[in-house]
Structures are given as structure tokens and as C-alpha cells.
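An instance noted here:
***
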Amino acid sequence: MSLLDLLKTKNTQKQQLAERWRQAWPQALEAWSKYTRLRDPLLCTNRAEAAKEGLTGTFAKIYLRDQRIVIDLETVAKLGLGDYAVEILAHEIGHHVLAPANATDHFRLLARVRRNLPMLEQHAPVVVVLYLDLLVNDRLQRRCAMRMADIYRHMAASPEAQQGSNAVWDLYMRIYENLWQLEPGSLSSREKGGGANTDIKMDAWLGARLVRVYADDWLAGAGRFATLLVPYLVEDNKNSKAQSPIPYLLDTTDAVAGCDPAGGIDIEPDEVAPHPSEDPAITGMELEEGTQEGSQQQVVYLSQGQAREPFEYGEILRAVGIKLDDHETAARYYRERALPHLVPFPTRPAPESTEPQLEGLEPWEIGDPLDELDVVEGARPRDREHAVGADGPALVVDLVGRQGDVLALQALVRALRAGVGHAGGAYVQRGAGAHQPAAVVGAARAH
């Protein structure tokens, strides 16, 4: 096979893969609701197109600004995930529908995670992605019977997963094993080790419980998930050879690019979260009295109307994908600080009129009571017939609609004698003289 034929074959395969993914889009939408509406995904058939859309290292991304989903099909094919179109598309839709859903909640989520990663704030975007994926994937696997576990089996076979060990990835896979009651080791690879891995089974159970307990209040669970990952992040920082497929999963790192999230200046009272092992909602065990009092005092301390510093605010903006220089960051920060203190422009309430107001109109038809007619003035230049009354102004008759209808004309004459200006679709004009017609007088039934 010549080089040209090989290139044609590869191009045909890419087009066929893209077509299969387009056909899977409606089914992926219905996984969340038959009423879900999003713009069609952008399917990039090569990495050059994907790079122009901001995909570097990952095979999928979402953008909350325009509710857009971008897929790198070349990387998808490389990982052997071409047959999982419905699952991957439904996962990305879940980020628009379930979590984070909007720019403000994504900003708040990352702020909470950063608050619970002391000296490890640079890892906050990765922790956010892992947490959001747990929420979305657990719902798709359990409620929609999708093959989310098979996707991670394929990713575990990637070269990145085979080269070296990664503590965060192993814990992450074990959490999925607990969530979906899979055989231990079916997703994770490391069974023994020291340091943080000693308690990995217990931490995996706590992580699975956290996802289920805080599924409907995922902002509250974000800080707890961050504290759970702290020792594993420290271990990976010490291990320079630690590699994992996690970079393929970073689909929300720039989700807020181009957005203007509001409400991120103030520190929320419950941003500092306890470790999941100290949360009675997760463990089912009540804490000691002294620990509970300490937690309450901490919450009271954080609820004194504290605001973030401009530097921290700028770091969060950059972490969610909003690229601003220091001057623009400071301007946005102080603008949000000033908004609650703005005084509204003084207004003077105007008294409401008690007079009835004319609203909708209905055409008056022959046979309707004449007392239901209401005269409406307007201008209607039509073919006219002029007649001069013996004792008064000129009469201009405009026959519209039912021309030649004798009954309509008779009704019109009766209406004129009664002082009414319209009957059965015929309009009349009254003028001040034979050569000076006045405004047209129409008629309609008043509401």
C-alpha cells in the first residue's frame, strides 16, 4: 500500500469515527434528560485542530461560556476509547448539567479546594477535576448503566499508567472500586507499599462514602475530598517518577475561560473542612465533645465577613482559566468589593392611575350588539365615496372586507345613524366638510 493510500485510509477511518460520535450525541443527552439541550460537540479529527481549541494533553474539554464540548478523536483512538462515545459525551454533558454547571459554582468549588490544600494550592485544579469526575461518573454508572469502569480499565493500560506508580491515581481507582463494588485491584495496580499507602483502603472507603453522602451538596464535600488527598499529593511530590493518566482527565481546567464569575470575594463560613474521618455524616460516628466545639469555634471565626486578599483572588481566577494581568485582576477585585455598597439612584414613586386602560381589541361582527362597539380613530386611505349631508358634515364611507355585501351596507347605515363608525368590516370617515375629510373612524369590541 502506497503512502497516499495509507493516508486516505486513515482519513476515512477518522471520518467514520467522527460520524459514529455524532450519532451518539442524542443518546448521551438523554442520559441526563430528554429535555437536555446543548450545542453539538466540536469533534476534532487531529491534534492540530484540538490544540487550536485548547486541548493539550486531554482528549475532552468543556467551556461554560458557550456551553461547548470539544473532543480530540485522535487521542481517543490512541487510548482505545473510540467505542465509548455515549459514555464520554454523557460525562462531558454531566459537567454542564450536574457539576460544576456554571462559572460561579466552579469558582467557589476551586476556592474551597485551595483553602484545604495548604502549601499544595498548585494542585487544586487537578483535585477539582478528580472530584467532579467522581460525582458525574458514579451517577452514570449506577443510574444509567454506562461502562464508565471499562474506560478506566483502558486508561490503566496506557503507557503513563504503566511507568512508575502514582499515589493519587491508586487512591482514585480504589475509590471507584468501592463505589461500584468491583474486585479489589481490578482498576488499581498497587497493593502494597508504605507511607500514605498504608491506609489507602480506609481512605478509599471514606472517599466513596463522601461521594455518596455529598452527591446533592457537592460544594460542601469538596473541601473534605481535598483534605483526603493531601498525604497522597505530598507523596507524589516526593516521588519524581510518579506518572499517571490523570492529565488525560483534565477537562474542566479552563472551563470558566471568558466568563465573569461573581460572588467569589467573600470567604464562605464552611470553606475550612474537616477530614472525612472526622465527619459524622460520612463515618456515622459522633465526634468527641472537644472536637465538635473546636469545629464550631472555627466556623464562627470564618463567618465574621472576611474577604479574600487580591492576590488570592487573582490566583483563583487564573486557576479556573481566566487569564488577567495584575491591573485587571485588581480592578475586578475592588469592583466586586464596592458593589454591595453602591447606593441606588433616588426615585420618586408615581401614583397609579385608577382610570380603566384600553387594552386588547376584537373585531365587531354583524349580529353582535351595537353597544359593544368602541370607536377607534386612525388613518385609513382607501377608495372612498363622498356624500354630503343636508344639515351637516360630509360623510366618507370606506367599504373594506365585505365589499358588495348589501347586508353589511345596511348594517353600516344603521350604525351610522346610531353614531357608530364600523360594522361588519366596513369603516367610515367623518369630515368637517365635503372637501375636507377628517380622521378615519374604525370600530372594535372593547375588552
